[in-house]
Amino acid sequence: MNPRGARPMNRRSFIARSGALVVSFSLLPHLAGAQAGKLPGSLNNEPMLDAWIRVGADGRITVFTGKAELGQGIKTALIQVAAEELLVEPSRIELVTADTARTPDEQYTAGSQSMQESGTAILHAAAQTRALLADLAAKRLGVPAERLTIRDGTVNGVAYGELVAGQALHVRAQPQSPLRDPAVRTVMGKPLARVDIPAKLTGQVIYVQDLRLPGMVHARVLRPPGYGARLRALDTAAVTSMPGVVKVVRDGNFVAVVAEREFQAIAAMRALAKAAQWDERTKLPDSKQIHELLPTLPSQNTVIHDNGKSGTGPGLIEADYRRPYQMHASIGPSCAVGLYRDETLTLWTHSQGVYPLRGAIAEMTVMPKERVRCIHMEGAGCYGHNAADDAAADAALVARALPGRPVRVQWMREDEHGWEPYGPAMLSKARGHVSAEGKVEDFQYEVWSNTHSTRPGPAGYLAPAWHLEKPFTPPPPRAIPQPTGGGDRNAIPLYKFANSRVVHHFVTEMPLRVSALRALGAYMNIFSIESFMDELAAAAHADPVEFRLRHLEDPRAQAVVRTAAERFGWPAWKKQPGRGRGFAFARYKNLAAYTAIACEVDVDRDSGRVRVGRVVAANDSGDIVNPDGIVNQIEGGIVQSLSWTLHEAVSFDRTRITSRDWGGYPILRFPDLPESVEVHLINRPGQPFLGTGEAAQGPTAAALANAIADATGTRMRELPFTAARVRQALGA
Amino acid sequence: MISLNVNGKAEELDADPATPLLYVLRDQLRLNGAKFGCGLGQCGACTVLVDGRAVFSCVTPISTLAGRRITTLEGLGTPDKPGRVQRAFIAEQAAQCGYCIPGMIMQAQALLERTPHPSAAEIRKHMSGNLCRCGTHMRILRAVERASREP
Amino acid sequence: MPRFAVIASLAAVCAACASDPVAPDAVPAKASVDPALIARGAELAAIGNCQACHTAEGGRSFAGGRPLETPFGTFYGTNITPDPDTGIGRWSEDAFKRALREGVDREGRHLYPAFPYEYYTRLTDEDIRALYAYIATREPVREPNRPHELHAPFNMRALVGSWKALYFERGVFQPDPARSAQWNRGAYLVNGLGHCGACHTPRNFLGGEKKEELFNGGVAEGWHGPALNARSPAPVPWTAEQLFKYLRSGLDDVHAIAAGPMEPVVRNLARAPEEDVRAMATYLEALAGPPSAERRKKADAALAQATSAARANGGGAEVYAGTCAVCHDRGREAGSGGALPLALGTAMTIPTSSNLLRITLEGIAPPEGEPGRAMPGFADALTDGQVKDLAAYIRSEFGGAAAWSDVADELKKIREERK
């Protein structure tokens, strides 16, 4: 990371200055699954992308991606892809990630799409770069290209850097890419140690939290106690004379204090909090009635799936499922560094979308977009849209008030817990029945949810912008359409049912601030549908695994189900008192990775405590680039989903969020871990990348619910399965 | 002026004695290992060693640290020469976002200094004060076990 | 007379006080028991806090194994699941009733009074029946009992007979007709199943209740159980409503956050019927009596101090300012982060430093996975000297009382336990 490049620059000027060999696309590379006229992945959004790959005359290879490292290991995987097709050691590749001055606009690093979008683009770009280098070598050496030997960054012994020296080529990509045969790959499909880990484990400057610029000051923002609170009075006089305080910045209800040192800023912010008098207005709903409230709020109702004559037969089995508001709850509170100098604003941010953020910041500060640069730098894992963008907005507002001095803003823990946009509370209703042959005859499903995306884009989605003298208001939410969906993500079963119908109730009124949390609605819908599948299997007197296979036609879906069941030892598993096993499957978004999970639990009836034993997962993420990276993501997804499913719910009273630290919002700790987590991968070399990041969330929750039902005979349909709730459900 | 012994080096510091160690480490000594996570001693992201014991630096004022031995992540090793626990975490690829891991490493270091060969249950219990949000726990456990096997 | 001589002579007199065994009988099958009776038993077991002593950390409910540290040694909670070999699977209802009423096991051996039958003896037949219905229909767990580790001479079970002769009064609770039904219900629960006196009444060197000092404050596992009567050390007098809230949630903003052995008590009371906990609160409020004018004045002063910053002077003040004030001074607003202002807490005003030291060193942790107030422990962060300074400062600043004389001893004891 080099923070020196603070002066905004335009990506084109950067490329122009860099010279050497540049590969850009204007035409569709030959991609599996690509439709004519529609460019694949990120290329579709930016057809005139100037640069993905640069080979310098000094031999340096730079790869550019608009995606960001979030701890998911994307940097390592993208380097592997480039290294494979360029035939160089991965260590030779420098990867530049999301930066509005340097990299392509790939919107958000979200939706488990980085491999499909950026990975696919880089795969093809690298292959074509290699071909271009071979052509250059063929001309120079007078040897036909097909007789050249390309190895370790050389063509017939001539280094790539030497081949491109003196050249100033702007080459448009061809529709065809000479991709390497998967059978001869040396880097892709093999585990590669994550490139970012050693620095993280030895305290190097990695996170935006670690960034220190010369002359940097520290800011803290005085957050209102709740949504809609207004400052009635604030006397800042005493605070401005506190040690180290540089300035108190106020714009309406937005108040920040800047100090030379971080702890001075915190002390000053606390003093401000004591001095501030608020009018608290917003009335939050009754948290205990939220699922009764949801269906009564205004909504847009869409039949997203209608097959056969659903609903005409009797709904023999009916079940409601509930999910509370849940947090991203990053371990590191959000942070950003801003610098306003020469009428340009530079922000170092862990936002998932530097380009959309730039637009929002420009709108909020009334600056031209070209005068704002957003550079991604890692933060703590975010798992979706957390307060990263808000912290960047804070930094922008404070930096504008303090030209020439870099300003670092970090949120306090209670701010992160209290103000981040939560994963929405949801309600679902399933109805269905099985035929005499033991197949699902009818399946009806309805889901109620707020939006799952209030990402900036619009400045009205930045919380600090709500508090300004001239406030921005959030624009009306819009549903994310199928086939990916938002609240209705994975609401349509992948199973083949005789008759089925699915309705999405997009609830437009939002009592609490909500946005994208890892897997969006898929977590809840998979939990609901896969729980209901077990209820239907029981009605059919069928084994849950066999019952799923009965309704799955996709051979890849069948393969993960069979693999998970076999590795778990499903058929031979022995029932014991208080112990149960559960199974669940989903294909994320019905178009991405396939994941099946089997697990076993012990349930202590009298305390309600659930202990998770073995967890066995099978995953097909398409063409595997870094197997250990995928295993790490699935393991992590399983453990995080267990935490959501066993423990997590945002609490609030009628005016404020009340879960504002780790005591009030407990997450899973080491003693609650499963006994073991095993992940088995099915590789599909040469097939499209399917992404992995969110694949485990839903199946884990459902497998757990199914295991508890198997252990106790009682089905848990309301998340989370806290000890108190399980105990209550089981009775004495 | 307060004198602190950090990673074997005497540091003279001009700071309010009530300042928690975390901010002095990060702000004044430019050490990044200890992270701000909660400021409440609830998550362990700021864990350092004081006289060989794991301590939450976000709630430990420098006024209490005179004459005591402070070790941070940086005191265990460098990227070129990582320490034993760091090596074990790298070998197990025990990180996702990595923000909590420095605290985990320090907590593990404290355990292994007192209990060189802990049982799996002892490791789980000892690490329970440190939170991880990415769900890297299983790898962290493996890394601590690996470190306990290596000299 | 030296203690041992007393004990030895008592033992000689009462060596053979055990009773006859009750014939083994299988516990009833769950299906044969009225579910309403089982449910009632579950509520009573919650009030009795049975799970706390009969469940090991991370272990199966009621399967025993939890250590209970006492001056006489370490007791281990027994397996009371209906496993026939290791639990109470061969106990008839009569055997169960005799254990509660008389402190004798099925085989006729004395039970150590760590099992609080001195209180359970007051239970009605009806309640014992419900408790039995619940306990006997739990999931049987095969888990052999761990032998108690008691110092001589307390490892001689026969001595319990002598102890009973001196301190144990059999007999079902007798209501006071002059008092309200709610008060009587509360008195029955507090003095019977709730066995509050076990920790809140002082005991003599043989572990007998000092009857003339009922609820004057006692000891539990190294913690002080504060006085519940007029001697209550609470800076602000408790109301029944506040007691109810605290007993159900472990939290009252102007009094306390439950810690130590009180933590499982409130967790269990959260499962008890609301009207029973209200009755306990009513009785406890009456037990303390109406506060005097002087107490009210003190309470107002404490409440005022709770919202102002602490004075800073001396080494302990410096430790407090950097370590504690972050949460306790500001109160950190409502919500999950709120810490108790120390001017309102009893740990500062009780006669011993044990509670303050234990909370300082060990912190407060909500049960695994359940929301609650969390505080880190400072055992490894603070040196003994710093802890002593801090305790002295907090005692004087917030307790407003003469310095504790037991800080060094208590600290040494807690450090020993932690090794």
Task: Put the structure in a nutshell.
The complex is a heterotrimer of chains A (732), B (151) and C (419). Chain A is α+β, with helices and mostly antiparallel strands and 732 residues long. In chain A, 28% of the residues lie in helices and 21% in strands.
Describe the structure.
The complex is a heterotrimer of chains A (732), B (151) and C (419). By secondary structure, chain A is of the alpha+beta class. Helix content of chain A is 28%, strand content 21%. In chain A, the strands form 6 sheets. In chain A, strands 11-12-9-19-16-17-18 form a 7-stranded mixed beta sheet, sandwiched between helices. In chain A, strands 4-3-2-1-8 form a 5-stranded mixed beta sheet. Chain A starts with 10 loop residues before the first helix and ends with a helix. In chain A, 60% of the residues are buried. Chain B is α+β, with helices and mostly antiparallel strands and 151 residues long. Helix content of chain B is 33%, strand content 14%. Chain B has helices at residues 21-28, 84-91, 101-114, 120-126, 137-149, and strands spanning 2-6, 9-13, 47-50, 53-56, 69-71. In chain B, strands 2-1-5-3-4 form a 5-stranded mixed beta sheet, sandwiched between helices. The mean pLDDT of chain B is 97. With 419 residues, chain C is mainly alpha-helical. Chain C has a 3-stranded antiparallel beta sheet, with no helix packed on it. A two-stranded antiparallel ribbon of chain C has the order 4-5. The two termini of chain C are 35 Å apart.
